[in-house]
Amino acid sequence: MGVKPYYGPDFGLLLSQDPEIAQVLLDELDRERGGIQLIASENFTSPAVLAALGSTLTNKYAEGYPGRRYYGGCEVVDRAERLAIERACALFGAEHANVQPHSGASANLAAYAALLKPGDTMLAMALPHGGHLTHGSKVNFSGKWFDVVSYGVRRDTELIDYDEVRDLALRHGPKVIVCGATAYPRLIDYQVFRGIADEVGAWLLADAAHPIGLMAGGAIPSAVPYADVVTLTTHKTLRGPRGGAILCTGELAGRIDRAVFPFVQGGPLMHVVAAKAVAFAEAMRPGFAGYAQRVIANARALTEALTREGMRAVSGGTDTHLALIDLRELGVSGAEAERRCAAAGITLNRNAVPYDPEPAAIASGIRVGTPCVTTQGMGLQDLEEIGTLVSRAVRSPGSSAEVRERVAALLAIHRPYLSEY
Ligand SMILES: *Cc1c(COP(=O)(O)O)cnc(C)c1O
Q1: Are residue 158 and residue 58 in the same domain, yes or no?
Q2: 233 lines ligand 1 (CB under 6 A)
Q3: 365 Cβ partners below 8 Å, 6+ apart?
Q4: Is residue 236 assigned to a domain?
Q5: Cα–Cα distance between 15 and 1 in angstroms, integer?
Q6: Residue at which a domain ends, from 232, 250, 283
Q7: Ligand 1 mutation target, pool 233, 264, 276, 321, most atoms within 8 A of CB
């Protein structure tokens, strides 16, 4: 149990040698602890993970894989990577894991490189309906190098239109079907996607960047038994260091490993690989299952409170750690709501809602998520109050000082980096 604020390994040394950067670290810690963090893709990683990140493993070049490196002196870092791989396979029940991707986007680039050639067809969720930039956006490599066909959600239910997915798959014969999203509050039916992929002879790639921690904790069904390849981030619901990883079948192991290195990346970040191993072990402890369940229960409590306040939840609710709120009936844009919440000490992001008439920079909605507040120990009643506070901040910017006071009261009880992990 930590009783003092955690500033990182040997913070005093940094303070004496580089006070400017030390001040940045202090200010960011204050910012993270001084407001309510509702960004669905963020979390507070543990002091143990931070310790691994701040280690001399950052010094080591280790191109290649354990036992097959292109540099000498890798016998120690090999142990870190072997542990990370073993733990990832055990945690997710996967046949193979590659723990080197620097980020979720790098993991997707490598997964595509393993399965596709430039010009090949892939089918993925449209960005304005909740997909990710790496799922075929024109401004991303995926949209430039591949022939991308997009599916979306139905206008009436705001749920993935599996009939449309199947029709498009039959019509276009994609080599890869991608399921997974960045702003979709509901469960994804991986079994249905598997059936469609089998019907058209496509690989199934599940991008579980967001919900992977909920899968690790057994709070929602895992994509691993259904997908040929699962890409993930380690820093969102999984609560580890910033980074990515890929899980795949034994059949694809060689192709995935060659795609990560040498095709997409150079030397792995061994301090981050070690920190991923720490996070995988933390996610295997019994407490993490409870965390994953509380994240979802908290997201439901928040969404229900927002709904009672007259803020419409896209698809009518959530099954996960996040909700998407449509603000059109309030006459406040997503960008304006984001600003008003920030002024009241609540950090969240604007987000397009399905069939949004506004450009993405304005957007008609906001996205809220509960990984951070759950890590700092907040429960159902806290989230109900946060729902009321978000509503007040969005509707009446004049009340931001009062909202800030309530935010400070909640934070005084639940302080990140002052409570037990
Ligand atoms: C966050 C996210 C990514 C990318 O992760 P980065 O680490 O930011 O590159 C990829 N896919 C989805 C669905 C995501 O939500």
Answers
A1: yes
A2: yes
A3: 314, 324, 325, 326, 327, 334, 350, 351, 352, 353, 356
A4: yes
A5: 25
A6: 283
A7: 233
Instruction: Tell me if residue 388 is catalytic.
Output: no
Range of the domain at 244: 53-283
CB 254 within 8 A of CB 92: no
One domain, residues 260 and 124: yes
Place of tokens 């280690």: 55
Per-residue pLDDT of 286-328, as tens digits, reads 999 999 999 999 999 999 999 999 999 999 999 999 999 999 9
- What is the C-alpha to C-alpha distance for residues 97 and 92, in angstroms, rounded to an integer? 9
63 noted as active-site residue: yes
Taking alpha carbons only, the member of 353, 45, 341 closest to residue 184 is 353
Q: What is the DSSP letter of 153?
A: B
- Among 251, 283, 315, identify where a domain stops: 283
The answer on 336 and 266 residing in a single domain is: no
Domain count, the chain: 2
* Claim to verify: residue 248 and residue 126 sit in the same structural domain: yes
The predicted-structure confidence for 317-372, as pLDDT tens digits, reads as follows 999 999 999 999 999 999 999 999 999 999 999 999 999 999 999 999 999 999 99
Residues 375 and 307 reside in one and the same domain: yes
For residue 3, name the pLDDT band (cuts at 50, 70, 90).
very low
The residue ranges of DSSP E strands in 58-119, in sequence order, are: 64-65, 68-69, 96-98
Closest C-alpha to ligand 1, atom 5: 104
The reply to whether omega before 262 is within 30° of 0 (cis) is yes
- What's the pLDDT at 416? 86
Q: For this structure, is 242 an active site residue? A: yes
Entry pTM: 0.96
Q: What is the CATH number of the domain that holds 215?
A: 3.40.640.10
* Residue (of 355, 406, 416) closest to 384 by Cα position: 406
| Dihedral sign from CA coordinates of 33, 297, 108, 241 | positive
209 ligand 1 Cβ < 6 A: yes
Residue 135 corresponds to which tokens in the numbers above? 């799922």
Radius of gyration of the chain from its Cα atoms, rounded to whole angstroms = 21
